[in-house]
From TrEMBL:
<dbReference type="Pfam" id="PF02798">
    <property type="entry name" value="GST_N"/>
</dbReference>
<dbReference type="InterPro" id="IPR040079">
    <property type="entry name" value="Glutathione_S-Trfase"/>
</dbReference>
<dbReference type="GO" id="GO:0004364">
    <property type="term" value="F:glutathione transferase activity"/>
</dbReference>
<keyword id="KW-0808">Transferase</keyword>
<dbReference type="InterPro" id="IPR045073">
    <property type="entry name" value="Omega/Tau-like"/>
</dbReference>
<keyword id="KW-0216">Detoxification</keyword>
<dbReference type="InterPro" id="IPR010987">
    <property type="entry name" value="Glutathione-S-Trfase_C-like"/>
</dbReference>
<protein>
    <recommendedName>
        <fullName>glutathione transferase</fullName>
        <ecNumber>2.5.1.18</ecNumber>
    </recommendedName>
</protein>
<dbReference type="InterPro" id="IPR036282">
    <property type="entry name" value="Glutathione-S-Trfase_C_sf"/>
</dbReference>
<dbReference type="InterPro" id="IPR004045">
    <property type="entry name" value="Glutathione_S-Trfase_N"/>
</dbReference>
<dbReference type="InterPro" id="IPR036249">
    <property type="entry name" value="Thioredoxin-like_sf"/>
</dbReference>
<dbReference type="InterPro" id="IPR004046">
    <property type="entry name" value="GST_C"/>
</dbReference>
<feature type="domain" description="GST C-terminal">
    <location>
        <begin position="53"/>
        <end position="189"/>
    </location>
</feature>
<dbReference type="InterPro" id="IPR045074">
    <property type="entry name" value="GST_C_Tau"/>
</dbReference>
<feature type="domain" description="GST N-terminal">
    <location>
        <begin position="1"/>
        <end position="47"/>
    </location>
</feature>
<dbReference type="GO" id="GO:0005829">
    <property type="term" value="C:cytosol"/>
</dbReference>
<dbReference type="Pfam" id="PF00043">
    <property type="entry name" value="GST_C"/>
</dbReference>
Length: 197
């Protein structure tokens, strides 16, 4: 069997800034979503995580790219802000807007099924699901939990279902531990900003 290793190729203070690298047969594959697609293609013994229909595949790839390129950088601003007072209302609104878009995308992509990809976890479920732990922590820290429950009910139900899945439940980080880590991040950035002034 081929040797597979997952490494980080950059030494950065916090895991949210690291670039994951998969080594497969001594060949590096970088970036989370590219790694997920590579594993899907390199080990085709089970069902694919991407839809068989080319249009549905394109839509899932679009939303996954949106998560990484547009939504997550804004979401990260909430986590990296130097203090709770600094959290910008406009940034919270942008995160909420992204969640509202995901609500609509879920309804359209899932076609009434439990996951973005249908009856089972697939590519887009993995792309967004990898942020659920941090989303829960930041939602509590920024007091937007009620928004998630009331304004994005399908997305909220999907997140509960995703986290309860046998493939995920043992690996989902605890919200309180992530909140504690988030507070450490805020303190570090506040200290760094103070030392630069």
């Amino acid at each position: 069997m081929a040797e597979v290793k997952i490494l980080c190729n950059q030494k950065v203070s916090f895991c949210l800034s690291q670039i994951p690298v998969l080594l497969h047969n001594d060949k590096p594959i970088c970036e989370s979503l590219i790694i997920v697609e590579y594993i899907d293609e390199a080990f085709p013994s089970g069902p694919s995580i991407l839809p068989s229909d080319p249009y549905d595949r394109a839509i899932q790839r679009f939303w996954a790219a949106y998560i990484d390129d547009k939504w997550f950088p804004t979401f990260r601003e909430l986590l990296y802000s130097q203090s709770d007072e600094e959290v910008n209302v406009a940034t919270i609104e942008k995160v909420k807007e992204g969640l509202a878009l995901f609500e609509d995308a879920f309804v359209k992509c899932s076609k009434g099924k439990p996951f973005f990809s249908g009856d089972k976890i697939g590519y887009l479920d993995i792309a967004l699901g990898s942020f659920i732990g941090w989303l829960r922590a930041v939602a509590k820290m920024c007091n937007i939990v009620e928004f998630l429950n009331e304004e994005t009910p399908n997305l909220f139900t999907w997140s509960e279902r995703f986290c309860a899945d046998d493939a995920v439940k043992d690996y989902m980080p605890e919200t309180d531990k992530l909140m504690e880590f988030g507070r450490l991040i805020k303190a570090k950035f506040k200290a760094e900003a103070a030392s630069q002034n």
